[in-house]
Amino acid sequence: MTERLSLRRPDDWHLHLRDGAMLQGILPETARHFARAIIMPNLVPPVVTGAQAAAYRDRILAALPEGMRFEPLMTLYLTEDTDAADVAAAHASGLVKAVKLYPAGATTNSHSGVRDFTRVQGVLERMAEIGLPLCIHGEVTTPEVDIFDREAVFIDTVLDPLRRRIPGLRVVMEHITTREGVAYARAGGDDLGATITAHHLVINRNHILVGGIKPHYYCLPVAKREEHRLALRGAATSGEGRFFLGTDSAPHVDALKEHACGCAGCFTATNTMSLLAEVFEQDGAMDRLEAFASLNGPAFYRLPANEDRITLTRGAPVAYPAKIITGAGPVTVFDPGFALHWHVTA
Ligand SMILES: NC(=O)N[C@@H](CC(=O)O)C(=O)O
Ligand SMILES: [Zn+2]
Ligand SMILES: [Zn+2]
User: Amidohydrolase-related domain location, by residue (predicted)?
Assistant: First the structure.
């Protein structure tokens, strides 16, 4: 059995860092292992303009502890009023690496998202011209559609028509959770990628609901049936270039998770690499972990892979803190419910 694994330093292609005391408290959890991350713009108010993204980037770098290195890759939150020229300038300057599409009301802080897609056609056409990727939270918000079907319905009724309307638009299907998502990503060309979280490789919907409701397993898109989890595992461990890690690590203080109307989001930044190593080992795919965590993402985003490396070591079960204590309050670390034997040692 492999006891050590060296891989290029990983990146996180979908991360929520928040702001203020929360940012300060949780940034080291990502920066400890990851070189770069695509930073989600769903702050309140959202990061819409290039100037707002530059200011947010400065706040992230200011929150980075002395001696830690980390490169935030900024995104813009697409609204119906987004200015195509501002987006193009923010991309040309190197500041912005993607634009994020939230259907209005789909998830945490998405009320400024898109309702009428005809209003963003011009921006999306410009993005296709300049090769700037669109990251999509792919769920419909139609009240009649069952929450477990919202991703599959989105693919058929929104995503596929959108990609046909704007040929050449580079799209990342964010945090896919279904076999339909896996199949659609596989059917695309090299203009289509998909991120997969660590937690969706580990939990299915029973983990949320059986034996009592577990708010720390509730995120959006919500975990689906076991067959979907297995499809995601097959995709992540396949080594195929279109699938890469986006943790969607999404901290909320415990008071807002353990609540009558609990917030969506799993906080995985602390133990993502241990979770992934355990999953890839279970599936006999340790030799493909580097592709998923460190190579496929940069290739899609047309960035070089990191030059430095990390070492994962297998040993006695690793003890992670149950919570990260931040100035905003405690944040519970995702608990997979099984022992994690691999940890980053260098
Ligand atoms: N994933 C989540 O459940 N929550 C995210 C938003 C998102 O990525 O949809 C958040 O910002 O909390
Ligand atoms: Zn999302
Ligand atoms: Zn997210």
Answer: 12-305
